[in-house]
TrEMBL record:
Function text: NDH-1 shuttles electrons from NADH, via FMN and iron-sulfur (Fe-S) centers, to quinones in the respiratory chain. The immediate electron acceptor for the enzyme in this species is believed to be ubiquinone. Couples the redox reaction to proton translocation (for every two electrons transferred, four hydrogen ions are translocated across the cytoplasmic membrane), and thus conserves the redox energy in a proton gradient.
Keywords: Cell membrane, Membrane, NAD, Quinone, Translocase, Transmembrane, Transmembrane helix, Transport, Ubiquinone
Main location: membrane
Keyword Cell membrane tagged: yes
Lineage: superkingdom: Bacteria
Recorded family membership: Belongs to the complex I subunit 2 family.
Enzyme class: translocase
Topology versus the membrane: Multi-pass membrane protein
Transmembrane segments: 12-31, 38-60, 72-91, 103-120, 126-145, 157-181, 201-224, 236-255, 267-288, 295-315, 321-343, 364-387, 399-420, 447-467
Protein location: Cell membrane; Endomembrane system; Membrane
Organism taxonomic ancestry: Bacteria, Pseudomonadati, Pseudomonadota, Alphaproteobacteria, Caulobacterales
Protein name: NADH-quinone oxidoreductase subunit N
Record domain NADH:quinone oxidoreductase/Mrp antiporter transmembrane: where: 122-413
Organism from which the protein derives: Brevundimonas balnearis
Length: 479
């Protein structure tokens, strides 16, 4: 029987969110749809409070090692909670513009954040699976949240069906690992997963990696990503592109480093193949896209390949690089989606690249913001995206994987074409006469302010000195 007086403080942020979500759900059920705005505000406050609590929880493990609170998990939780809070804000503005008043939206994001935090603190295969399913169930509903839109319903169904497949891979891999290791705990598995592991353990590890690769939308397990990004509501896609990927990457790193650290020669080969496939699919697949959200889907596939290089390195510097990359990636992605939500033509949301034609004249501030964000994501110095790639490529090269880092650099150059195309359309293509930009609504003006704030971060990141030491401390605290 665990000592709850020691265990509960370690999970204080998760308990705060879970209990808060129940209270908000009851509040919405009694007040009705008119409580949507109030619940959104309370959800943001709840997520920010959870981030503050997570930053000060004690270090240790609970529930026989199933739940781990270390600096690595704390860093991830703070980032996940803050990213979820931004998603709630973006979603509130989207619902106001679409005249949708549903109090369940922010509550689902809060519940998803609980699952993501559980993923970050997983210490064994059971808690790993519980965290994955807890956050996935909420995301399935969010993908189809706009139920009057056929594309959103299709996106939710595809995500659910393929998500069930990935869950099956996770469970089958976990059962094989348990059968050969005799334990679910990562620490116990590490004692069996030596430099020359048993074939059955390797098979289980491969299935586990495949299941986790689906969650981060790494190729060749990316098949759900373009369709879900295209069909789901824009603020939901903004959430998909940020917080869940951070949680899954942290879980990926924890499972590989703590459970199979001595067997790196086995799993690094699989991850290298996934990285190379993600580079190719993300860079080449994005060249033919015209829908902006589908384009961002292929961009995310390539960027996850870059982030995985930090895990492939198998070093503390590699983990630090992965955390830095994901942090900067989250900021850039929210900037992109804030720009999309701030724009409309003839009363309809911007969806295609060509809809951005003539933006320099109609929305000069937004055009500058999107230009800086595009340059940042493609890795142009001195913006933040450059530094993210600099750290992951450097960590991979220092660990001896310079060929893979070189392949990632080539893919980054290829992917630069579709970012430069966005800039070209904004600044040099005239706006069609039948698509003249309309005046911004108050909601769209608010999103423009978000976009301007988001692009300011890539501009000043060179002068910030807090991110690198924080990521280093988090990486050194794994386990």
């Amino acid at each position: 029987m665990p000592d709850l007086s020691q265990a509960l403080p370690l999970a204080a942020s998760e308990l705060t969110l879970a209990l808060g979500a129940m209270v908000l759900l009851m509040l919405g059920a009694f007040i009705g749809e008119k409580s949507a705005r109030l619940i959104s505000i309370l959800s943001v406050a709840l997520l920010i409070a959870a981030a503050a609590i997570a930053a000060y929880v004690p270090l240790g493990s609970a529930f026989d090692g199933a739940f781990v609170s270390d600096r690595f998990a704390i860093y991830a939780k703070v980032l996940i909670y803050l990213a979820s809070a931004v998603a709630v804000v973006l979603g509130g503005g989207w619902m106001q513009r679409e005249r949708i008043a549903r109090f369940e939206f922010p509550i689902l994001i809060v519940l998803a954040a609980v699952g993501m935090a559980m993923m970050a603190s997983s210490g064994d295969l059971i808690s790993l699976y519980i965290g994955v399913e807890l956050h996935s169930l909420a995301l399935y509903v969010l993908a189809a949240f706009h139920r009057d839109d056929a594309r959103a319903s299709e996106a939710g169904l595809k995500y659910f069906v393929l998500g069930a497949l990935s869950s099956g891979l996770l469970l089958y891999g976990s059962s094989l690992i348990y059968g050969f290791a005799g334990s679910m705990r990562f620490e116990d598995i590490a004692a069996v997963a030596t430099a020359d592991p048993a074939p059955g353990l390797v098979f289980g590890l491969v299935f586990l990696i495949c299941g986790l690769a689906f969650k981060v939308s790494a190729a060749p397990f990316h098949m759900w990503t373009p369709d879900v990004y295209e069909g789901a509501p824009t603020p939901v896609v903004a959430l998909f592109a940020t917080a869940p990927k951070v949680a899954a990457m942290v879980l990926f790193a924890r499972a590989m480093q703590l459970g199979f650290g001595e067997a790196q020669s086995a799993w690094s080969q699989v991850l290298i193949l996934i990285c190379l496939a993600s580079f190719a699919v993300g860079a080449i697949g994005g060249l033919a896209q015209r829908d902006i959200q589908r384009l961002l889907a292929y961009s995310s596939i390539a960027n996850i390949g870059y982030a995985l290089l930090g895990i492939v390195a198998g070093t503390e510097a590699g983990l630090q690089a992965m955390l830095i990359f994901m942090t900067l990636y989250v900021v850039d992605q929210f900037g992109f989606f804030a720009v999309l939500l701030s724009l409309s033509r003839n009363g309809r949301p911007i969806r295609t690249i060509q809809d951005l034609a003539g933006l320099k004249k109609t929305r000069p501030v937004t055009a500058i913001a999107l230009t800086v964000l595009s340059l940042s994501v493609l890795g142009m110095p001195p913006f933040s995206g450059f530094w993210g790639k600099y750290y992951v490529f450097g960590a991979a090269a220092d660990a001896g994987y310079w060929q893979v880092a070189a392949a990632g650099l080539v893919a980054s150059v290829v992917a630069a074409f579709y970012y430069l195309r966005i800039i070209k359309v904004m600044w040099f293509d005239p706006a069609p006469e039948d698509q003249a930009a309309t005046d911004q609504s108050p909601v769209e003006a608010r999103f423009t302010a978000w976009a301007a704030a988001a692009f300011a971060f890539p501009l000043v990141i060179v002068g910030l000195t807090w991110l690198e030491p924080l990521a280093r401390t988090a990486a050194s605290g794994l386990g």
